[in-house]
């Protein structure tokens, strides 16, 4: 597996990159992965040291089994204890590393929409809406506004099982956004959609990220996703060159 | 080792719960065994046994017919399990994926609700010399009186084993249906067919081993149960001598308290007999595996099946039919007026039996219901705590299936493998020496020991099968573990939870021995009342009681099947599979 150290010559290419030493002190805004290393037993899966600025997306590429899912789980707070993880995650200056998942304020999107099957579309969104918004009508109003934002007006009472794949993906995005996360984690969220839909949903997601000025991490094996995210790419590829140090593939925006 | 926030925090109590619940459930078994070992060696100060001695064993071995009793128990355990398992394997081999398979699933599912005692009474009403079979044969064979045959209660215990098989074969078939998908039957059958294997040979050689591995625990539980059964033996079994467990109960309840020393020694013998049944069964498994390897190695295709497939349906069809017709016959008897022998149906029907039975049955029915609903609910809470604690040890289970660790599973399922009678005696003795009289809470606790394993068996697979990402989504939306459990996981598992509850309820309703021994006859349930009628021979009253005994679990299963449909009628993905 590859080891990712900042390749010294390239640091200046990236506006969002910070030097290792500086990362130890978390920056004010954005999502910072500081000295993160994940290993399974003696086997190091990945090492990453990056900062993602608000509105930017860090794309982590690699085939299945390369450890990109464990990076996702680590940042979200679900890493299986079988893994050894080191390093810290900061979000807008808060240290997330030891926070419970429900306190991290991270929005998750998976390759499946994972709408709760026992709730209507509206109930799925109400479940996400912050408790601070009170009153039945007020809460319903907030949900309807969000449904309109993803072009799904009038689906409040629908059974999620009756939605098309694209509609379900949009409800999932709406649900994530309603909880007002400070950052997004995307785990191949487009891979189950067919080709035509994929571009639309992708644009929708990335425009929301830029609009709401959220940092995001996208885990994928589809180069087109990386292209669309249009930013920093880390490739934790399959080649076994652990002894030879880093191969840091990076494309400045 | 940084990271994985609350995972670390919740791990310590999680691991503690994951051990505490099974320990709690296995504790009565341990206490009960100790409570039986001491008096078996003569030590029970409460009854004047102050010194250890081998006298109880000497007394036991001097009992006439002891060897026959032990052999009956051994044979009952082995024969019941072998025929039930073989019947299931043959049926699936012949009919998996066909219309017959679907028909069996539909027809046999309700049989899960029928308690052992009711099924045994039903069979007795069919095969007795004055039962349905001989009434149908009376005209063609030309007899006008019931033949003088000892069928129910035959000295070899064949009727008893038939009664056990009639109940256990459908049970194992239903368990096997649930296990089938994991054995990948469709692709394996296609592959073996493409290699030229006949349908049955293909199934038995490629799919069945995978199914059997999953249903092994229920099979062993059947073996243990059949070798120590009391209620079915009282209804259908021989009496001179009776199987070991039946004689133990008689000694234990004898007014002569000194017999309890011998009874305790007998309980250890029962433990040895059941142990022998399990060991012989495991040896049989090895033998079967060796035989299968030899057949596989030989490469014979068995493509010509002829009538074999039809013949393979007979055991399951007979078992299912005997329970169905048996129950119908119980009903006919419960409403029959005067009914002379060769008449197939009673010439008149009335409700006089029911009007006599219902006032007397109301009390036992209430006790039964109360104990069943409370023990099943308590078992559900404990099992959910156990499964959830176990699951949280693996926060992101993707790629690694969560299951109970072998040690934990061994502890929870222990009460199913150790013969009930062996440790219930000791438990009764312990309660006596603690001066605890029979009470509803104690009875609930005793039932819990047998109810919880079945609830765990029913709930574990669906519990661990829920995609962990649903709760990850809930957490990312700001919801904690409690909301994740009560607003996401439990509602998603409505059907599985209610089914587990119904199975627990039915298990409690059917318990005979714990109710008899822990209730000390002072807390009669519908089951102890029904079994007590066996010796009396009033068929009308027996019919009514056996039906009432079936009614409660049947209602529970009906509710658990319909409630999710009503609750989630507008949620397509929530349809029970």
Automatic annotation (TrEMBL), chain A:
<keyword id="KW-0067">ATP-binding</keyword>
<dbReference type="InterPro" id="IPR017871">
    <property type="entry name" value="ABC_transporter-like_CS"/>
</dbReference>
<dbReference type="InterPro" id="IPR003439">
    <property type="entry name" value="ABC_transporter-like_ATP-bd"/>
</dbReference>
<dbReference type="GO" id="GO:0005524">
    <property type="term" value="F:ATP binding"/>
</dbReference>
<dbReference type="InterPro" id="IPR027417">
    <property type="entry name" value="P-loop_NTPase"/>
</dbReference>
<feature type="region of interest" description="Disordered">
    <location>
        <begin position="228"/>
        <end position="253"/>
    </location>
</feature>
<protein>
    <submittedName>
        <fullName>ATP-binding cassette domain-containing protein</fullName>
    </submittedName>
</protein>
<feature type="compositionally biased region" description="Basic and acidic residues">
    <location>
        <begin position="239"/>
        <end position="253"/>
    </location>
</feature>
<keyword id="KW-0813">Transport</keyword>
<dbReference type="GO" id="GO:0016887">
    <property type="term" value="F:ATP hydrolysis activity"/>
</dbReference>
<dbReference type="InterPro" id="IPR050093">
    <property type="entry name" value="ABC_SmlMolc_Importer"/>
</dbReference>
<dbReference type="Pfam" id="PF00005">
    <property type="entry name" value="ABC_tran"/>
</dbReference>
<keyword id="KW-0547">Nucleotide-binding</keyword>
<dbReference type="InterPro" id="IPR003593">
    <property type="entry name" value="AAA+_ATPase"/>
</dbReference>
<comment type="similarity">
    <text>Belongs to the ABC transporter superfamily.</text>
</comment>
<feature type="domain" description="ABC transporter">
    <location>
        <begin position="18"/>
        <end position="253"/>
    </location>
</feature>
């Amino acid at each position: 597996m590859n080891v990712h150290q900042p390749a010294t010559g390239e640091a200046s290419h990236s506006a969002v990159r910070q030097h290792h030493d500086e990362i130890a002190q978390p920056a004010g805004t954005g999502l910072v992965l500081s000295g993160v290393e994940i290993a399974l037993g003696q086997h190091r899966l990945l090492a990453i040291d990056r900062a993602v600025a608000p509105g930017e997306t860090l794309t982590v590429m690699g085939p299945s089994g390369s450890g990109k899912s464990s990076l996702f789980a680590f940042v979200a707070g679900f890493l299986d204890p079988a893994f050894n993880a080191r390093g810290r995650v900061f979000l807008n200056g808060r240290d997330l590393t030891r926070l419970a998942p429900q306190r991290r304020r991270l929005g998750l999107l998976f390759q499946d929409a994972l709408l709760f099957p026992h709730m209507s579309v509206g109930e799925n969104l109400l479940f996400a809406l912050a408790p601070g918004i009170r009153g039945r009508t007020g809460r319903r109003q907030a949900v309807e506004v969000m449904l309109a934002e993803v072009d799904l007006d009038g689906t409040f009472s629908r059974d999620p099982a009756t939605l098309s794949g694209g509609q379900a993906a949009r409800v999932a995005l709406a649900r994530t956004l309603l909880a007002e996360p400070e950052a997004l984690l995307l785990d191949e969220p487009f891979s189950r959609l067919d080709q035509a839909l994929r571009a639309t949903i992708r644009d929708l997601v990335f425009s929301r990220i830029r609009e709401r000025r959220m940092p995001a991490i996208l885990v994928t094996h589809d180069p087109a996703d990386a292209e669309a995210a249009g930013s920093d790419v880390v490739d934790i590829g399959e080649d076994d060159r652990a002894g030879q140090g880093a191969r840091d593939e990076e494309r400045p925006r | 080792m940084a990271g994985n926030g609350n995972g670390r925090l919740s791990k310590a109590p999680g691991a503690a719960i994951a051990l505490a619940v099974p320990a709690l459930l296995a504790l009565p078994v341990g206490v009960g065994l100790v409570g039986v070992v001491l008096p078996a060696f003569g030590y029970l100060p409460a009854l004047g046994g102050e010194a250890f001695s081998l006298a109880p064993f000497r007394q036991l071995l001097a009992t006439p017919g002891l060897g026959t009793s032990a052999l009956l128990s051994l044979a009952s355990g082995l024969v019941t399990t072998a025929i039930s398992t073989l019947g299931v394997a043959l049926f699936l081999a012949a009919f998996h994926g066909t219309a017959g398979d679907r028909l069996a699933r539909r027809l046999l599912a309700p049989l899960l609700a029928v308690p052992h005692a009711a099924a045994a009474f039903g069979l007795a009403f069919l095969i007795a010399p004055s039962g349905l079979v001989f009434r149908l044969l009376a005209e063609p064979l030309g007899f006008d009186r019931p033949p003088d045959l000892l069928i129910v209660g035959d000295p070899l215990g064949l009727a008893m084993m038939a009664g056990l098989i009639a109940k256990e074969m459908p049970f194992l078939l239903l368990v096997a249906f649930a296990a089938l998908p994991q054995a990948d039957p469709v692709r394996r059958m296609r592959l073996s067919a493409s290699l030229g294997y006949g349908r049955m040979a293909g199934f038995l050689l490629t799919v069945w081993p995978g199914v059997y591995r999953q249903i092994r625990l229920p099979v062993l539980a059947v073996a243990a149960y059949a070798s120590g059964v009391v209620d079915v033996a009282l209804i259908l079994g021989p009496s001179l001598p009776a199987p070991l467990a039946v004689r133990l109960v008689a000694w234990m309840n004898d007014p002569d308290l000194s017999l309890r020393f011998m009874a305790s020694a007998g309980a250890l013998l029962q433990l040895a007999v059941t142990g022998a049944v399990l060991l012989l069964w495991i040896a049989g498994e090895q033998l079967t595996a060796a035989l299968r390897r030899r057949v596989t190695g030989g490469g014979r295709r068995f493509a010509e099946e002829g009538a074999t497939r039809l013949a393979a349906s007979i055991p399951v069809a007979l078992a299912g039919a005997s329970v169905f017709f048996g129950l119908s016959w119980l009903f006919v008897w419960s409403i029959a007026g005067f009914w002379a022998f060769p008449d197939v149906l009673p010439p008149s029907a009335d409700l006089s039996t029911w009007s006599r039975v219902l006032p007397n049955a109301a009390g036992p029915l209430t006790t039964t219901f109360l104990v069943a609903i409370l023990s099943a609910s308590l078992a559900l809470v404990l099992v959910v705590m156990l499964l959830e604690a176990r699951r949280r040890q693996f926060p992101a289970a993707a790629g690694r299936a969560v299951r109970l660790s072998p040690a934990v599973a061994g502890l929870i399922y222990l009460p199913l493998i150790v013969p009930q009678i062996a440790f219930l005696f000791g438990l009764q003795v312990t309660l006596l020496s603690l001066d605890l009289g029979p009470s509803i809470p104690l009875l609930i606790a005793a039932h819990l020991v047998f109810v919880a394993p079945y609830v765990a068996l029913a709930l574990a697979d669906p519990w661990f099968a829920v995609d962990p990402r649903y709760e990850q989504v809930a957490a990312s939306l700001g919801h904690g573990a409690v909301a994740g459990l009560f607003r996401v996981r439990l509602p998603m598992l409505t059907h599985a939870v209610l089914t587990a509850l119904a199975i627990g309820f039915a298990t409690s309703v059917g318990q005979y021995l714990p109710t008899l021994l822990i209730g000390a006859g002072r807390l009669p349930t519908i089951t102890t009342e029904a079994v007590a009628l066996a010796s009396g021979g009033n068929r009308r009253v027996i019919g009514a009681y056996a039906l009432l005994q079936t009614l409660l679990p049947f209602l529970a299963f009906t509710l658990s099947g319909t409630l999710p449909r009503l609750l989630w009628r507008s949620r397509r993905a929530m349809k029970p599979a």
